[in-house]
Amino acid sequence: xxxxxxxxxxxDIRLQGRAEETKLQLKxxxxxxxxxxxxxxVTPKVVVKEGDHVKAGDALFVNKQFPEVRFASPVSxxxxxxxxxxxxxxxxxxxxADAKQExxxxxxxxxxxxxxxxxxxxxxxxxLFGYINQLPYAVSTNPETMPKxxxxxxxxDKPLACRFEYEVKGQEQDFVTGLKALSKIAKxxxxxxxxxxxxxxxxxxxxxxxxxxxxxxxxxxxxxxGVQVNNTDPxxxxxxxxxxxxxxxxxxxxxxLNTGKVNLTRTVALCGSEIQKPAHVDMLVGEELSxxxxxxxxxxxxxxxxxxxxxxxxxxxKDGFLGAYSSEITVIPEGDDADEMLGWIMPRLKQFSVxxxxxxxxxxxxxxxxxxxxxxxxxxxxxxRHIIMSGEYDKVLPMDIYGEYLIKAIITGxxxxxxxxxxxxxxxxxxxxxxxxxxxxxxxQRIVREGLNILRKENx
Length: 460
Hints:
- This protein has about 450 residues and is an alpha/beta fold.
- It has helices spanning about 115-125, 165, 170-185, 195-205, 225-230, 250-260, 290-295, 365-370, 390-395, 405-410, 415-420, 430-435, 445-460, and strands at about 5, 25, 30-35, 45, 55, 60-65, 70, 75-85, 90-95, 135, 140, 150-155, 190, 210-215, 240-245, 265-270, 280-285, 305, 315, 330-335.
- Strands 1-14-13-12-15-10-11 form a seven-stranded mixed β-sheet.
- A hairpin with a 3-residue loop joins strand 10 (about 135) and strand 11.
- Helix 3 crosses helix 6 (about 250-260).
- The longest helix is centred in the C-terminal third of the chain and has 16 residues, at about 445-460.
- The relative contact order is 0.15.
């Protein structure tokens, strides 16, 4: 029987443009690219050159610090470019896919007969190990430090998120195999929402015999793996836990062990208020977005294309590539062409507000018993200012930390204070909602990332 943890803090943002649970059938244009920046904390060393032919599963680059951590090509084909930016930073490795795909055969494996060392070895060999992250520092982990536990979140609760319960349908065996493999390495915790179908499948497969299943009942960000760690088994200084905030990674692992091949296919929600027919589509990691986005929205509108969700995703374009952890491609109005009469002084019945600044609060579920969906654009609606100690962060941060004080400690560079306030437990995405509600308009996710990077450098 799963444990249930109820969280009261948080905020569900209801936006227009949720993808229907149907799948589009698209023909890929054959252009792919793996982007090292998708893997936080990895310094890439390219191991292929232009003109090389690779199979799906062959390494395109490795982590310079830990060369055994490889990153696999999602397709077989010809390496067409290794794009670099300033100071020769590797931006991406592009591959033109073959008409007929070839795969490196790593051999099927019986997970029951594997121990933790064998599982880690299999993931390193196939170039999937780098998809596992760690706390502290919220970076791609390394095989030299074994964790005290592994945390997997199968709850997606960010705005317009692709439900994992829909994605995993028909792939339950791969998911269970992936969980079982992780449990060979260390005690594994699985966080889920109130998802009857998924919970039923886990119960049928007797998953509670090898993983600890916890149901998180509460608003966003209950699905954040950092929030789940904090409410289940918090970490202390000197401890390390491995985290998988994207449950599709568990499918990658399960497919590898069940078939012996690297298959980086994932279900992606094409969503947002600007999308004409929001739906889902199966895509490979690194696939070019132009095929998906062609004729999907009115090109005459000023729009922002986001690789991921509206809270934590990165701005991209039609020529961008699907991120390693992106389960949504979101298109919303840019807002730079908005012309509002009287500006902020208008009552605004159609705009979302977390407080009672707008009259739209009269349409909140508790007041009128219906769930209104809003159109949000990319405007900040205000300028940067001093931090206002108003308790705004605490209302949407269901963790046992003082968010505002931690942010101030990071800005001032007070490392001792950061450690006392729990910086080892957080990742930038934990502050995504706080950034959304912040009256000071600070880039909290960037601030937290910079603080974690400095701390990691100091402790190395």
